[in-house]
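Weekly structure sync, notes
Attendees: PL (lead), two postdocs, one rotation student
Agenda item 3: pending single-chain targets
PL asked that the sequence for the first pending target be pasted directly into the notes so everyone works from the same version. It is reproduced below exactly as submitted, 380 residues in total.
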Amino acid sequence: MKRQIFTADHEAFRGTVRTFLAKEVVPHHARWEREGIVPREVWLAAGRQGLLGPAVPEEYGGGGTTDFRYSAVLTEEFARAGAAGLAVGLHNDVIGPYLTSLATDEQKRRWLPGFCTGEIITAIAMTEPGAGSDLQGIRTTAEDRGDHWLLNGSKTFISNGILADLVIVVAKTTPEGGAKGLSLLVAERGMPGFERGRNLDKIGQKAQDTAELFFQDVRIPKENLLGELHGAFGHLMTHLAQERMTIAVAGIAAAEHLVELTTRYVKEREAFGRPLARLQHVRFEIAEMATECAVTRAFVDRCITEHTAGELDAVHASMAKWWATELQKRVADRCLQLHGGYGYMAEYPVAKAFTDGRIQTIYGGTTEIMKEIIGRSLLA
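Predicted structure, written out during the meeting:
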């Protein structure tokens, strides 16, 4: 079925993204995976192509549009290319809204131009060794020392952790912490006491640097408070819906692409003297996955439209997130199975998709947390 949510301008942007991926990313991605990180130069190239900060006002070098459909196009094309190393979605759709909606004019002048050129790479540090989805369990502290905050603690599983120049840190600014005692503080590269741990060895998304971060008596200037003092919990809840939508968009795009790849494969691969596609079981598998993708696509596209209009609530974003990512996980498993032994070979795209996509049901809020959010809304 033809999708109805994009205009000619969105499709022209899609062409730009595909050209960028074909030239600057896909030919080099295998090397980046071996190295465990992407070069800073590719971030600068993304900035030159206008792929960074589409929602940032033009006065700071951004695209000046709040139309989420451009972000959806970007996310879809990166997902189809299997290019998880360059975390543009994290930069644009997760961290970007914090800076555009919460930063002061002075902070915007300081950070947003570099955000859009790729000179400032960003991360957000919420997760700790003992606190994942439970934000109220955060132990990192920031003590008020008059003209600065004294930041102490550690974070883990931080995407862009090695490359990041600017990190939004969630910290306790009251002894109790919790919903009314957390604040967002911006740590910048080079601040004394701000150290990176190891680049974590993951089972997938190996080109995407994910790190431990350590803060030991880091002096955070008062002007690096982002948003309201003790207001982090509310800020986080406000912006998590877009993060979850971005993950959902990637999930369905990846699932659709896997079905396309596998459909071609079973037409070409022979067993017992005939193509796999002639076997009824294989046809049923493809039929089921294609149908599940089509139904999920309809719902996710509706959510994209609602979010673009500013009308998507957290419950439906959670529905989209858990459903699309669980579908992606199932499709990756079934497509790998249909590839047989070749599906287990790392050089086959289906194998990479299997390991890269596994994190989708975990980060941004696990499937179980998504169901809890939905259940509470229905049974409160």
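Discussion points:
- The longest helix spans residues 232-268.
- The chain has eleven helices and ten strands.
Action: rotation student to compare against the earlier draft before next sync.
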